[in-house]
Amino acid sequence: MSAREGAPVRYRARVEYDGTDFSGFQVQPGTRTVQGELEAALAQICGGSLIRVVAAGRTDAGVHAKGQVIAFTDPKGRKAAELARALNALLPKDVAIREVLRVPPGFNPRYAARYREYRYTVWNGPRSPLLERFALGVRDQLDIAAMEQVGSVFVGRHDFSPFGAAHRQPVRTVHWVHVRRNGLIVTVDVAADAFLGQMVRRIVAVLLKAGHGKTDEVAVAAALASGRQAFNGAAAPAKGLCLRRVVLGPMRVWTAAKTRTPDRTENDDRQDIYGP
């Protein structure tokens, strides 16, 4: 059934952004944020009214996104294609809107997300000003097998407070940590039901230590179980991190007996707001 002309309509959209010049996604007084730019553009479209934008994840300062999911309500119920064109005409060059779709009233991507997946990119080669805008430059050869082995420590349901910002509920479920090399590019993909602040960057910092032979899975497992800040809170730089995708749908319950990828299907890339 089509929306009544002029009636409010709820929309979701995929947002891509270069986080280099942002103080993160969430609105903060006196700083430039992705949410601030989106809401400013919506205000221009809607005659100055504040249209609140909610997101599936609040990326930190300097973190990028290809698959961020947002939701907002258009009070006049304009067509999705019209909104997409208008927003992209008003947004700055480092933010773009993709795939605007109508959703039920009250839809919130934060609660609708089944899992989120981040990718951290490392340029494991000679100094490269272009590549290192979106990747961490590491000159010494990395031991990918050692990184993958340490990454397996994080898979499962754990209290991640040793590897993340303080939170009243620090228990998270990590579905997978994959480390891959493609020539001189090393990628770390981490998927979880949700993340603590800086959690992926702190995990990557430890994986890099493992890649240089400076820690192993025994030490990392002990740090994860300690309940205390691990490895002095070391975090990889934000520029290498990108929110790749947010897959929407009912959450699956993880148990110790079920360690495989959580119900990922070939339909995920069609059902989610997908990054690369």
Main sheet makeup: 10 strands, mixed
Parts with pLDDT < 50 across at least 5 consecutive residues? 253-276
Q: What is the mean predicted local confidence, pLDDT?
A: 90
At CATH's second level, what is the architecture of the largest domain? 2-Layer Sandwich
Secondary-structure element string: EHEEHEHEEHEEEHHEH
What coarse outline follows from CA principal-axis ratios?
A: globular
CATH superfamily of the largest domain: Pseudouridine synthase I, catalytic domain, C-terminal subdomain
Number of domains: 2
Alpha carbon gap, first and last residue:
32 Å
Tell me the structural class.
alpha+beta
Explain what you see.
With 276 residues, this protein is α+β, with helices and mostly antiparallel strands. The protein has two domains: 9-107, 2-Layer Sandwich (Alpha-Beta Plaits); 113-271, Alpha-Beta Plaits (2-Layer Sandwich), CATH 3.30.70. The chain contains seven helices and ten strands. Residues 253-276 have low confidence and may be disordered.
SSE layout:
Elements: E1 9-17, H1 34-45, E2 54-55, E3 64-74, H2 80-90, E4 95-103, H3 109-112, E5 113-123, E6 136-137, H4 144-151, E7 156-159, E8 171-182, E9 185-192, H5 199-211, H6 217-226, E10 241-248, H7 268-271
Parallel strand pairs: 3-10, 5-6
Antiparallel strand pairs: 1-3, 1-4, 2-3, 5-9, 5-10, 7-8, 8-9
Helix pairs in contact: 1-2, 4-5, 4-6
Task: Name a few traits of the molecule.
276 residues; alpha+beta; Alpha-Beta Plaits; 7 helices
Concise summary:
The chain has 276 residues and is of the alpha+beta class.
